[in-house]
Amino acid sequence: MRRLSTTEADFDARLAELLAFESAQDPQVDAVVAAILADVKARGDAAVLEYTARFDGVAAKSLDELEIRQAELKAALARIPAARRAALEAAAARVREYHEHQRAASWGYTDADGNELGQQVTPLDRAGLYVPGGKAAYPSSVIMNAVPAKVAGVGEVIMTVPTPRGERNDLVLAAAAICGVDRVFTIGGAQAVAALAYGTATIPQVDKITGPGNAYVAAAKRRVFGVVGIDMVAGPSEILVVCDGSTDPDWVAMDLFSQAEHDELAQSILLAPDARYLDAVEASISKLLPEMPRRAVIEASLGGRGALILVRDLDEACALVNRIAPEHLELSVEDAGALLPKIRHAGAIFLGRYTSEALGDYCAGPNHVLPTSRTARFSSPLGVYDFQKRSSVIRVSPEGAEKLGRIAVELATGEGLPAHARSAALRLRGQG
Question: Contact 284/262 with Cβ under 8 angstroms?
Answer without folding.
Answer: no
